[in-house]
Specification:
5-stranded antiparallel β-sheet, alpha/beta
């Protein structure tokens, strides 16, 4: 049984259908990318999977549990880090635990143990303004993980990073997924990023948005440093471009 799955999700706004019969599965340990043009309904789908919005038809399951319309079941990270500037990093990342009712001291203790794994050791009592863009994203990802049940929805989390920082964060994120047993659905407009990170790429296209194709990336993760220069990479890229 998949860790997470959607069954026949459809959604309309003002009688205009935005999503139609969306079926996605996420296996434990996988990173599945959702790739599509702007306006194809990717963010709407994430809002439904996260429970922030109810579908018109269909269901979302986390293992055996129907989590349709139930926020807090999986974590959701938007493009911006959204760290609170007036709170220290330990306070920012612990916020999901505190909101769930954990005492502040216990939440800090649980979060602090993970700082070294996320490359954040020494930043616990700094403010977000003191951190680089890459470090802010790591802090936001730690906060996302602490809010999760092993599933993270990431909406273009690395789009604001420069190329060199993004490459380093990609490698780090795949490593941290393995270490903390995290599974991810990932929205991106970056074809190269999708190929480099994903186990599978789901193509969302049309109006209303539908999953029209799925591409399995068979290359072992983490990908070789020169994978993006290989003929195999170019073949995947041509396939994605043709389907989009």
């Amino acid at each position: 049984m998949p860790l997470l799955r959607t069954e026949n999700i459809s959604k309309a706004f003002n009688h205009k259908e935005v999503l139609k019969n969306i079926n996605i599965r996420l296996e434990k340990g996988e990173l599945v990318s959702l790739l599509g043009v702007s306006g194809s309904g990717k963010t709407t789908l994430f809002n439904i999977i996260s429970g922030l919005m109810a579908p018109d038809t269909g269901h979302v399951f986390l293992k055996d549990d129907d989590i349709t319309g139930k926020p807090g079941s999986v974590s959701y990270m938007l493009q911006k880090d959204l760290l609170l500037p007036h709170k220290k990093i330990i306070e920012n990342v612990s916020l999901p635990l505190i909101l769930k009712g954990m005492k502040k001291e216990a939440a800090f203790e649980k979060a602090a143990v993970l700082f070294p794994q996320f490359g954040l050791e020494g930043t616990e009592y700094q403010y977000p303004s003191r951190l680089s863009g890459g470090m802010k994203q790591r802090a936001a990802l730690l906060r996302t993980y602490l809010a999760s049940n092993g599933v993270a929805l990431l909406d273009e989390p690395f789009s604001a990073l420069d190329t060199l920082t993004k490459t380093a964060v990609h490698k780090w994120y795949l490593d941290i997924m393995n270490r903390i047993d995290l599974s991810t659905i990932f929205i991106t407009h970056d074809i190269d990023e999708a190929i480099l990170l994903s186990d599978r790429i789901c193509i969302l296209s049309g109006t209303p948005g539908q999953i029209t194709n799925e591409i399995v990336i068979e290359e072992k993760k983490p990908r070789a440093e020169d994978f993006s220069l290989t003929e195999k990479f170019l073949q995947y890229k041509k396939q994605v471009i043709k389907l989009l």
